[in-house]
UniProtKB/TrEMBL annotation:
Binds 1 FAD per subunit. Its cofactor is FAD. It catalyses: L-proline + a quinone = (S)-1-pyrroline-5-carboxylate + a quinol + H(+). It comes from the Bacteria. Pathway: Amino-acid degradation; L-proline degradation into L-glutamate; L-glutamate from L-proline: step 1/2. Keywords: FAD, Flavoprotein, Nucleotide-binding, Oxidoreductase, Proline metabolism. This is proline dehydrogenase. GO terms for biological process: L-proline catabolic process to L-glutamate. InterPro entries: FAD-linked_oxidoreductase-like, PRODH_bac_arc, Proline_DH_dom, Proline_oxidase. SUPFAM superfamilies: FAD-linked oxidoreductase. FAD binds at residues 133, 162, 186-188, 200, 225-226.
């Protein structure tokens, strides 16, 4: 049943009709638990609250699968505005971007120009930008554009890698040689068995293997997981390998395992919370529902709450 529900929500995440309806009716039915709000004002307030608790933040102005040049240009302007607003507020954060939001499905050169504008502004303002890895259909072009940007801004840009993909071990080895700041995730997209591990056990194993691989490469590793078994294992590995705090951090999603985040901070570990905001929240929300059955039950309770 869990696999059926996961596939259902991942399929729903791709529905443009449902996405349009979600934008029209705003954050409802429990989405506000996982999304900080629809405006930069909400994002700044949430970021400040998390910073006050000792938590760093990744801001993500939600959006993906943009199909017009005007939409891509607006998304770029929104990201630049975010960088300017957080600088003025002096917040501890960095920015996450999706290349499809910047026009990757329209024109690769257009997308590169937009991404470069964002990373350039981030460099001016003293912030870091992470490129999210999307579905496998965009994997090769994402790497191509990332390497172009990293060659010009090596200290200002990083990449997310999905442990579920067969190719990720080799990809990570190449990124480790270049000293790339990598965010390691298990992966939240529906992929074929030709390119990804279909069995969760295999994904979990590769996830730990990749974490250990990058942690010992000398490069920065963002450990993106809520899995306490993985966290316990990595804490022991970090201690055994004597890896300094400057080379890693735990990362979790806004609205999920909040107490675990705070417990890690109390223990002295660096923790960053991924905080999404904006009106284009639907696809992100569907993937959160696909990841954990507990999220679905929360939404159902919200729907029938009076």
């Amino acid at each position: 049943m869990e696999a059926i529900m996961r596939n259902l929500f991942l399929t729903m995440a791709k529905s443009q009709t449902a996405n349009r309806l979600a934008k029209r009716y705003g954050l409802r039915f429990g989405a506000q638990r996982f999304v900080a709000g629809e405006s930069i004002k909400h994002a700044v307030k949430t970021t400040q609250q998390l910073n006050d608790q000792g938590l760093k933040v990744t801001l993500d102005h939600l959006g993906e699968s943009v199909y017009t040049r005007d939409e891509a240009a607006q998304a770029t302007a929104d990201c630049i505005q975010t960088l300017d607003v957080v600088k003025e507020a002096n917040l501890d954060m960095y920015l996450s971007i999706k290349l499809t939001q910047l026009g990757l499905d329209i024109d690769e050169n257009l997308c590169y120009d937009h991404a470069r504008k964002i990373v350039s502004r981030a460099a001016e303002n003293g912030y870091f930008v992470r490129i999210d890895m999307e579905d496998y259909a965009h994997n090769a072009t994402t790497f191509r554009l990332f390497h172009k940007l990293h060659a010009e801004f090596p200290n200002q840009i990083g990449l997310a890698i999905q442990a579920c993909l067969h190719k990720s071990k080799q990809d990570l080895a190449e990124l480790g040689k270049k000293g790339v700041n990598v965010r390691l995730v298990k992966g939240a997209y529906k992929e074929s068995s030709e390119v990804a591990f279909p069995d969760k056990t295999d994904v979990d194993k590769q996830f730990i293997d990749l974490l250990e691989q990058h942690l010992t490469s000398g490069s920065f590793t963002a450990i993106a997981t809520h899995d306490e078994t993985v966290i316990h294992h990595i804490k022991q590995f970090i201690e055994k390998q004597d890896i300094p705090k400057e080379r890693y951090e735990f990362q979790m999603l806004y609205g999920i395992r909040t107490q675990l985040q705070l417990n890690l901070v109390k223990e002295g570990y660096p923790v960053r919370v991924y905080v999404p905001f904006g009106t284009d929240w639907y696809a992100y929300f569907m993937r959160r529902l696909a990841e954990r059955p507990a999220n679905v039950s929360f939404v159902l309770r919200s729907m029938f709450k009076k």
